[in-house]
Amino acid sequence: MMRRVWMPCLAVGLLAVAAVPGLQAREALPPPAVMAAQGTIQSAFAPWDDIEALIVGQLQAAHRQILMQAYLLTSRPITDALVAARKRGVDVRVLMDAGQLDKNSEDRLRQLRSAGIPVWLETAYRNAHNKVIIIDAALPTATVITGSYNFTWSAQHKNAENVLILGKNPPLAARYASNWQRHRQDAQAAP
To answer: Which of 66, 132, 159, 163 could form an S-S bond across to 149 if both were Cys, CB 3.0 to 4.6 Å?
Structure first.
């Protein structure tokens, strides 16, 4: 009996969702990928571990490309490492949450733009809350950095934060790079 009731309710629910304007506007994505574990995993926890230095080290090791999604970006060492990577010929691109631009974030934005790093501002979401760095997605050394850690001084010194550095995993980096590109298409170029 429950089955007969459930199926019509499900069908009605799906029809109701389909009728809501705007819900179909976003491109449908494939189901989340289940990937075989591979590569390396490094975890770190602020304020005890120096996550900022770990991130800077990863940025210094980049060979071809760095894609960043930042909810907040006020860290001078991380910004300096992005600029240094650009100067050595690495393709560096940054997405930032437009709603989080304060004086310090605007200073970092100007620093990036002055170095020739393209920056886009995400405005399509209440919060573009991603904290992700994808390094050399097309190489065997492909690395994804993600976690709660905002790219700020406070994240390192005042907050309880975490980060995962997932190395030597090109399929995972490719999935994150694809998501980065999807977000970039919805973002506006920073002035």
So the answer is: 163
> At 108, which amino acid appears?
R
Beta sheet of 65-70, edge-to-edge order: 40-46, 161-167, 143-147, 131-135, 65-70, 91-97, 119-122, 188-189
pLDDT under 70: residue ranges of the chain: 1-30, 102-104, 125
Q: Give the phi and the psi of residue 99 in degrees, each rounded to 5.
A: -75, -10
- Residue 19: the pLDDT is 37
- What is the structure's pLDDT at 172? 95
What separation in angstroms does the CA of 27 have from each of 44, 50, 69, 179, 185? Answer: 35, 38, 20, 12, 12
Is 158 known to be catalytic? no
Q: Which segments of 33-100 does DSSP mark as H helices, in order?
A: 51-60, 76-87
Judge contact between 124 and 51, C-beta under 8 A.
no
Closest by CA to 146, choosing from 137, 136, 133, is: 133
- Given the residues 131, 157, 183, 186, select the one marked as catalytic: 131
List, for residues 39-62, the tens digit of each pLDDT value: 999 999 999 999 999 999 999 999
**Catalytic residue, candidates 129, 157, 158, 186:** 129
Place of tokens 């631009």: 101
Preceding peptide of 30 cis, ω within 30°: no
User: Quick check: is 136 catalytic?
Assistant: yes
